Amino acid sequence: CAKDAGRNQRVSFDPSMRVELERAVQLEHDLRSAIELGQMWIELQPQFDQYQQLLGAECLLRWRHPTYGMISPFEFIPLAEKSLLIVTLGDWVLEEACTLLTAWESIPALANIHLSINVSARQIDNPSYVDEMVVTLARHGIAPQRLQLELTESVFVCDMPTTVGRMHQLNALGLSLSLDDFGTGFSSLTYIKQLPFSELKIDRSFINDLEHDVMDYRMVEFIVHLGHELGMRVVAEGVETRSQMDHLVTMGCDVIQGYLLAKPMPVTEFIKRHGVS
Ligand code: C2E
Ligand code: MG
Ligand code: MG
Ligand code: MG
Questions:
Q1: Which of 8, 98, 179, 261 is the most exposed place for a label (fewest CB within 10 A)?
Q2: Which residue's CA is the closest to the ligand 1 atom numbered 13?
Q3: How far is Cα 274 from Cα 270, in angstroms, rounded to an integer?
């Protein structure tokens, strides 16, 4: 399904696009060796409950290019998704997350929190994804309940029966599934009903203007309600102000993630902050 991604792109050409294209070609090339050259790492962004108790963290991939400097995942993930490279990157992030979860078993303050990883549609498309997940979890000996997979609505454009089947298999393993960037993509209530999501993650764009835009406010209120009616936890991402947080808590939103409470940070920093009881 992801093979269709390259179609319908613009065909006209101007000099600025040439520079853009050269950069993309260079980055796509360099991405192949970024992990082995030690240019990539993950950062952790904490997720809190309404009382600001730590529940877990989201793993976010970082890449520092030797000449271009820091490259946003918004730029390099789509490049990786054009090829099977996203599978390699995804496997690496999974390994990192499992390694952390194992190490944290001996740190009481971190022994029960979860880690979330972002998974691209292209990874789920891979027929061996579920089997490889089983093998990886077993090799690390971690409880699947401690790992959460964040999927975006883009998984819905793929072969639905296959995707639905795989997601149920992942859920049956004990992993929990989170619907990331909810409200921005292709999801319909039919999909949400069919798929075993345990969490809805409200997209940042609805949170931004929550205090000032009454439509956004009502939309968020509705999503929280919808999630709860369907037995799901509801997460707000991109929470930047106290007033946004207060509104979300009033609405009963279960999980708060955003710069207000914590930015993504290196693993060592995360352990320093949260590893002591
Ligand atoms: P996402 O999964 O929706 O992650 C949330 C993004 O919002 C992160 O951007 C995070 O740094 C940012 N963010 C968190 N709190 C705030 C806030 O209060 N304000 C603002 N303005 N931004 C906030 P980041 O790290 O740049 O990642 C961008 C996207 O790249 C992610 O969006 C995710 O879709 C993708 N991504 C990152 N790491 C991975 C990965 O390992 N695999 C895959 N497939 N995608 C990844
Ligand atoms: Mg995410
Ligand atoms: Mg998101
Ligand atoms: Mg996103």
A1: 8
A2: 238
A3: 6
Task: Based on DSSP, count helices (H) and strands (E) in the chain, helices before strands.
Answer: 11, 10
> For all residues of the chain together, what is the average pLDDT?
92
Nearest-ligand number for the alpha carbon of 58:
2
Distance from the alpha carbon of residue 106 to the mean position of ligand 3, in angstroms: 30
CA dist 128 and 112 (Å) reads: 29
CB atoms closer than 10 angstroms to residue 143: 12
Nearest CA-CA partner of 203 in 220, 228, 222, 227: 220
Predicted structure pTM score: 0.94
Q: How far is the CA of 203 from the centre of ligand 3 (A)?
A: 6
Q: Report the alpha-carbon distance of residue 57 to residue 100 in Å, rounded.
A: 11
Q: What does the alpha-carbon distance between residue 33 and residue 22 come to, in Å, rounded to a whole number?
A: 18
| Residue to mutate (ligand 1; options 31, 43, 60; most atoms within 8 A of CB) | 60
Q: How far is CA 241 from CA 46, 49, 96, 155, 225, in A?
A: 16, 16, 31, 31, 22
Per residue in 77-88, pLDDT tens?
999 999 889 999
- Could you read off the pLDDT of 41-80 as tens digits, one per residue? 999 999 999 999 999 999 999 999 999 999 999 999 999 9
Give just the sign of the alpha carbon dihedral 42, 55, 114, 251: negative
Q: Which residue, by CA, sits nearest to atom 3 of ligand 1?
A: 181
